[in-house]
Amino acid sequence: MNNKVKTIFFISLIFVIMVFYFIGREINKHDNSPEPPLALISSEPPVDTPFDTPTETPIDTLDEISPSTLYIESLRARDYPASEIIFEETLEPGSNYQRFIASYISDGYKVYGLLTIPDDKRPEEGFPTIIILHGYIRPETYVTTANYIATQEGLARSGFVTYEPDFRGHGTSEGIATGAHFSETYIVDTLNAISALENYEEVDPNRIGLWGHSNGGLTGLRVIVITEKIKASVFWAGVVGSYPDMLETYFSKIDFLQRLAPVVIEEFGYPSDNADYWNRIDPYKYIEFIFGPIQLHHGISDSSVPIELSISLTDALQKKGKEVEFNQYAGAGHNMYGTAFSEAMNRTIEFYKTHLK
To answer: What is the pTM assigned to this prediction?
Structure first.
């Protein structure tokens, strides 16, 4: 083999090694992360923005969270003092609404969020308001202005005040991000946001609704069995099953709980073995306290959160005589795009107009 051939051979070998190195690094970067970077919920194709896939690893360990603080009765008995809504930054306005980064206080922590206010003249009692509860997004990459853009814009353009709290530990918000599944902190952050908004002059305190996606549905379902202040709720692809549903019946279909739940199950047992504990934290046991109507949306092809959870909640609500509307979307996954997004968004807006305006 002459020198020229040797040189070409070694250059080719180095090139092949580098290609496999970078391919391997990209695979590992995604496979080893708690969740893949997906798109914002939108009718547009995915973009390079972290988005909700409910596969979190809570930062707090189990022994740092007292089980009694998760009890629904404990949360119903707590006070959620109203803090002032503080305008931290004025942003570029929307088509017919103003945008701000605004903060409030929750358990002593400053929590930021994206606030929109319609340009229309303020009604005498204030604007109807929707609190947007995000699903899992990596706390360290969370950006207040970068999530659920199309959803919040659609609601803001329709004449609602909207507020999407970051939750503690996300982005620049203070505190520790505990995860939604076995901690009460995001529930408390939501309830404190409700109190702060009730105290804000632009908001009609008697016309507040919730919108939640994925883990935001999990948080939202617990909020509405704790307080009667929410007049209408909409959950998209919500983690809204009972604990027997999620930890036993459909456990094999919920990858993120297969990673998160074993340590909790080891401590407290399965719901079928320790009903006394699980019933105390299961919102299904407190459905009688739900005050307002609920609208559910779920993609039939959702591989992250099985549609059976929304079906179970629909059945449980109907058995208790609660008003519920269930919409399912053929071919849609955990994050909706295109026709499914447009249909779900239009139904959501009409639902809120019916029950909040």
So the answer is: 0.83
CA-based nearest residue to 234, from 181, 182, 310, 340: 310
Query: Residue 3: what pLDDT?
Result: 53
The whole-number average pLDDT for the span 224-248 is 98
3-class secondary structure per residue, 277-326: HHHHHCHHHHHHHCCCCEEEEEECCCCCCCCHHHHHHHHHHHHCCCCEEE
Other CB atoms within 10 Å distance of the CB of residue 95: 8
Domain boundaries along the sequence of the chain? 1-32, 36-356
User: Which residues are within 8 A (CB) of 86 and not within 5 positions of it... i.e. 6 or more apart?
Assistant: 102, 103, 104
Which CATH topology does 36-356 take?
Answer: Rossmann fold (3.40.50)
Sequence-ordered list of residues with C-beta below 8 angstroms from that of 61, at least 6 positions apart, any chain: none
> Strand runs (DSSP E) across 222-275, as ranges?
230-236
pLDDT in the model for residue 288: 98
